[in-house]
Amino acid sequence: MDEQLKNLKFDMDEEVAERERHFAQRRRAQPLDISHAIILGAIIIVVGIWGGKIYYDYLQEQRAKAALEYLARSLNPPMQESTPPPAQDPTPRYQPPAKPIATQAAEALQPAAKAFSHAVSQTGLEFMAGTDGPMGDGARAALKQQARIEQRDQIGNTNIVRSLKECMKPGNVVDNEVKACTEGRLEKTW
Fold first, then answer.
1. Contact of 169 with 184, CB cutoff 8 Å
2. 3-class DSSP state for residue 10?
3. Which residues neighbour 175 within 8 Å (Cβ) at sequence distance 6 or greater?
4. For residue 133, what is the DSSP state?
5. How far apart, in whole angstroms, are the C-alpha atoms of residue 143 and residue 122?
6. H-type helices in the chain, by residue range?
7. Per-residue buried b or exposed e for 78-103, using 16+ beta carbons within 10 Å of the residue's own CB
8. What's this model's pTM, rounded to 2 decimal places?
9. Among 91, 133, 163, 172, which has the minimal tally of Cβ within 10 Å of its Cβ?
């Protein structure tokens, strides 16, 4: 063995040069092209969304199972009282998780997002309504439709405080004053 080690020739300079050539070849590799980076990013996003959907579906399934178990227990209370209680189950029952922070944030921002969306839409329609041509005609029609919907919603949301019989004028006359009386905005003075 000592003879083999003595006969072994090892050139340190040659070894260093070979390693430098090897690493130089690695450095010459092209960086990730922008189109490939976009495709890779899209794949990562799609896979993440898909995985999130699968997890969400699993949670929904667990919630449905828990709801069905609860329903079965509530529909058959005499049966459960007559049978002896089972031994303590070592596995804990499913507890639905609290809403994720992202869901809570989305619910908190939803009114502001709706108001912003409505304001942007209204501004765009008003701008387009001031132009000539088919786009202007369509915008004016959309604004009229929105006005009708808002008016209908205001009429539909009125709270009746008094009955029509209590507020009706002599001679069974119904007018705006009677309507205001039923909504509680006007006292009956007739």
1. no
2. coil
3. 169
4. S
5. 8
6. 2-7, 12-27, 34-75, 77-82, 101-129, 134-156, 164-167, 176-182
7. eeeeeeeeeeeeeeeeeeeeeeeeee
8. 0.32
9. 91
Phi, psi for residue 11 in degrees, rounded to 5: -105, 110
pLDDT digits (tens, 9 = 90+) for 106-161: 788 888 888 888 888 888 888 888 888 888 888 899 889 888 888 777 765 555 57
With CA atoms as reference, report the closest residue to 48 among 38, 37, 56: 56
How many residues appear in the chain?
190
CA distance 3 to 20: 31
Which residue's structure tokens are 């049966």? 79
Helix, strand, or coil (residue 31): coil
